[in-house]
Amino acid sequence: xxxxxxxxxxxxxxxxxxxxxxxxxxxxxxxxxxxxxxxxxxxxxxxxxxxxxxxxxxxxxxxxxxxxxxxxxxxxxxxxxxxxxxxxxxxxxxxxxxxxxxxxxxxxxxxx
Length: 112
Fold this sequence. Notes:
Elements: E1 2-5, E2 18-21, H1 24-33, H2 40-75, E3 82-85, E4 89-92, H3 97-110
Parallel strand pairs: 1-2
Antiparallel strand pairs: 1-3, 3-4
Helix pairs in contact: 1-2
Pfam families: DUF1525 (PF07511)
Protein name: TIGR03757 family integrating conjugative element protein
InterPro entries: Integr_conj_element_PFL4709
C-alpha cells in the first residue's frame, strides 16, 4: 500500500504505510536556503556547509523525497491524496486511508 499526498492534504494512515509527500523535496530545499546571505559565494558556501552538516541523514531525506516523486509519477497518480493498493487499485480524494482501502476491497470483492 502507498499513499501519495502533500503537506496541504494530510492523511490518516496506519503505522507502516508508505506515505509520499510530493512537496517534501521542496520543503528540504527551503530549509537549506533559509536565511542565506545576499552574497552568492557566501550563500553557496553556507548551503555546502548545511549539506555537509546534514550528512547521510540529509542525503537519505533528499533521496527518499525525489524517489517518492518518481514513484508517484511512475504510477500515473493524477490527484492527491491517492491511496494505491497492489500498484493497481487507487482511490483519490480520501484522506482516511482505512476507508479508502475498504472501498478498494469492496470493489475487488465484486470482481471475478
